[in-house]
Amino acid sequence: NSHIPVITIDGPTASGKGTVAHKVADKLGFHFLDSGSLYRLTALTALRRGADLRDEHAIAKLAEHLPVSFAGGEILLAHENVTQAIRAEEVGNLASQIAALPTVRQALYALQLGFRKAPGLVADGRDMGTVIFPNAQLKVFLTASVEARAQRRYKQLIDKGFSANMEDLLSDLQARDDRDTHRAIAPLVPAEGAHFLDTSNMTADQAIEQVLKWYAQLK
Ligand code: CDP
Ligand code: CDP
């Protein structure tokens, strides 16, 4: 199914991947894959089951049998709406730890490929253009300065009624960047042929427009 168009959007945390990918998919009438949610769902399940985090085969088994479904922007885990629950900081941090396990990445591989359906797909994450869809029609590497990203996260958290501390956010972000870029398997690196987009001084709408423009130029 390599003829079905895929746009990959990879980048570090809080660079705006989710926001941009979601809107681009909407505009084009494409399907949308938030691959990070799969690592978050695995992490949430592991937490709830009290799984032994050193047992990578046990964690991979959880990943392989995720009873997940996506419906109209909501994420269901065996019929329970976990859209909010997987956004907790605790879940995000554990997600980034289990994402370094090769068995877990392998377990989620086929599930991700299955999202490539007509008329097309926009997929966001860390390795969409490098590992999962290396033959994507358009690859984007979205980034922004660590300060800009910390500001964005801060605003998101405050808007949702959570408390947040800028200093903690900055160090948390740097730790996550470090783990995601330096792990042995599927590290966060720009894919070959990726378009680079630094959005430090851009609005989300401007970033969305740039991606749509690149896509239109393909034809
Ligand atoms: O929202 P944020 O960018 O912080 O994270 P996310 O995209 O929801 O992903 C959570 C974690 O899953 C990341 O920190 C990555 O370590 C991992 N992940 C990954 O390894 N590969 C992907 N394709 C997507 C996420
Ligand atoms: O998915 P990722 O972790 O990369 O980021 P996100 O969850 O989409 O969060 C990015 C936040 O920054 C959202 O609240 C956006 O409205 C905002 N933002 C953006 O995405 N892009 C810009 N150029 C400026 C702000």
Automatic annotation (TrEMBL):
ATP binds at residues 11-19. Its EC number is 2.7.4.25. The keyword Cytoplasm applies. CDD domains: CMPK (cd02020). InterPro entries: Cytidylate_kin, Cytidylate_kinase_dom, P-loop_NTPase. It is an enzyme of class 2 (transferase). It is found in: Cytoplasm. Its main location: cytoplasm. Keywords: ATP-binding, Cytoplasm, Kinase, Nucleotide-binding, Transferase. HAMAP family: Cytidyl_kinase_type1. Belongs to the cytidylate kinase family. Type 1 subfamily. This is Cytidylate kinase. It comes from Massilia agrisoli.
